[in-house]
């Protein structure tokens, strides 16, 4: 699962912990791939909502509500996790929330009357997924040596894309394409698409459990839950001064806030754009998603070595610049072939942006407040995440054009890259 030579020599328990940590990325990637991007989002817009424009706006509402929830919950829960040594326990709770919401998507029928249920389940599931990444990411420095944090982060992200790819293949081959259904699912009631929600839940349970079995959390304080909650919430007032001790951290978090806003909006609406502007069916979107996961996984793993060699900041900047150029071209092409070519090229740079951002904060965060920093990292990625979907939805409704709405994503990518350019580098590989 982890390529040979990716990390220095490790003991068997250490390597087992690293593999288990990476496998969780394989497990949880089924949710953003199938639910948030390629299958359920497309199904919601095309079959549940009354029309594409309304569905796009409704989906933007779901993602906006999720963004508010993540922004409110991530920092205090990160602080509580640090004080109580509860990263794994809180990750388990977040995982359960996402698993339950994914399974319940089965009940969202192809009828506008079920749009509200779809919005609530998608929003809650997204909250569980995003809040869970706070605790998952905070475990990275425990499972990877300092000199290999970038490689471990990038390889895990690549494994995550492989997990998303595998889940998409299963969804396509077993559920979506067979007609008649291999499982006796009623296509008229969209059961072949709705069943992808329970598939995500099962995928997460089967491949996510090794992390909880083999990754042993280092308890810095190990306080009781009540005291950890009180001290964790009180500690939030001291996080901003902590940021000042690590030069450039505040600027990086603002930059991350902007470009992750653009990335999250792209993930949420990429399949919707493909379906609406290029008339791609659910099966076509699935095929595109499979191909995109191949290029994205290759990019995440390939750029992980660049991360450790030249630093996280240059890796993220190069990737953002490429995404801005390719994204602009995607907005003006008309042919489906050009969309495929540019979209797959864009995929090469999606993973490196996220993996390099994660490794940058992992290298800079003091150990005693690691989850707090990752809480702020999640907060910066989500505190204004309602703005991206909301702006996209407003632009789409005002213009009646999906392309005009998608163009707003570029504004966030450009602004974030400009701010990231000014983040000072720290000396040594641990601070790049």
Secondary-structure map:
Layout: H1 12-28, H2 30-38, H3 40-48, H4 52-84, H5 87-104, H6 115-138, H7 140-143, H8 149-176, H9 191-194, H10 196-214, H11 225-235, H12 239-244, H13 249-277, H14 282-310, H15 312-330, H16 336-364, H17 370-382, H18 387-399, H19 402-421
Strand content: under 5%
Unreliable segments of 5+ consecutive residues: 427-431
* CATH class membership: Mainly Alpha
Structural class by sheet pairing and helices: mainly alpha
The radius of gyration is 20 Å
Span of the ends, CA to CA = 27 Å
CATH architecture: Up-down Bundle
CATH fold assignment = Growth Hormone, Chain: A
Count helical runs.
19
Shape: globular
What is the tally of beta strands?
A: 0
Main beta sheet: none
The overall pLDDT, averaged over residues, is 81
Superfamily (CATH H level) name: MFS general substrate transporter like domains
N-to-C order of helices and strands: HHHHHHHHHHHHHHHHHHH
Task: Write up what this structure looks like.
Helix 2 packs across helix 13 and helix 4 packs parallel to helix 6 (115-138). The protein contains 19 helices and no strands. Mean pLDDT is 81; it is low at 427-431. It has one domain: Up-down Bundle (Growth Hormone, Chain: A), CATH 1.20.1250.20. It is mainly α.
């Amino acid at each position: 699962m982890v390529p040979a030579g990716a990390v220095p020599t490790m003991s068997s328990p250490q390597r087992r912990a690293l593999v288990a940590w990476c496998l969780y990325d394989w497990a949880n990637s089924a949710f953003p791939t199938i639910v948030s991007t390629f299958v359920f989002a497309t199904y919601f817009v095309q079959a549940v909502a009354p029309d594409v424009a309304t569905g796009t706006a409704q989906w933007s509402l779901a993602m906006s509500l999720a963004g508010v929830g993540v922004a409110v919950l991530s920092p205090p829960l990160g602080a509580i996790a640090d004080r109580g040594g509860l990263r794994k326990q809180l990750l388990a709770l977040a995982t359960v929330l996402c698993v339950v919401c994914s399974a319940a998507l089965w009940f969202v029928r192809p009828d506008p009357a079920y749009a509200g249920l779809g919005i609530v389940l998608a929003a809650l599931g997204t909250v569980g997924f995003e809040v869970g990444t706070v605790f998952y990411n905070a475990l990275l420095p425990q499972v990877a040596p300092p000199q290999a944090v970038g490689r471990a982060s990038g390889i895990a992200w690549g494994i995550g894309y492989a997990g998303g790819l595998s889940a998409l293949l299963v969804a396509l081959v077993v559920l979506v394409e067979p007609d008649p259904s291999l499982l006796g699912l009623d296509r008229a009631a969209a059961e072949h698409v709705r069943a992808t929600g329970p598939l995500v839940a099962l995928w997460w349970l089967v491949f996510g459990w090794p992390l909880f079995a083999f990754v042993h959390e280092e308890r810095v304080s190990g306080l009781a839950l009540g005291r950890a909650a009180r001290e964790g919430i009180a500690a939030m007032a001291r996080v901003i001064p902590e940021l000042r001790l690590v030069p450039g951290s505040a600027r990086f978090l603002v930059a991350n806030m902007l470009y992750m806003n653009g990335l999250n909006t792209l993930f949420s609406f990429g399949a919707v754009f493909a379906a609406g502007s290029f008339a791609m069916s659910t099966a076509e979107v699935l095929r595109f998603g499979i191909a995109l996961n191949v290029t994205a996984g290759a990019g995440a793993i390939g750029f992980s070595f660049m991360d450790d060699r030249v630093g996280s900041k240059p890796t993220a900047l190069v990737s953002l610049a490429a995404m801005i150029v390719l994204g602009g071209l995607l907005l003006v092409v008309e042919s489906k072939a050009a969309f495929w070519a540019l979209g797959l090229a864009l995929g090469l740079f999606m993973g490196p942006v996220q993996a390099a951002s994660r490794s940058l904060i992992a290298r800079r965060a003091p150990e005693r407040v690691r989850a707090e920093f990752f809480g702020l990292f999640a907060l910066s990625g989500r505190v204004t995440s309602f703005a991206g979907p909301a702006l996209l939805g407003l632009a789409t409704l005002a213009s009646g054009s999906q392309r005009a709405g998608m163009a707003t994503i570029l504004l966030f990518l450009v602004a974030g890259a400009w701010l990231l350019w000014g983040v000072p580098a720290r000396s040594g590989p641990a601070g790049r």
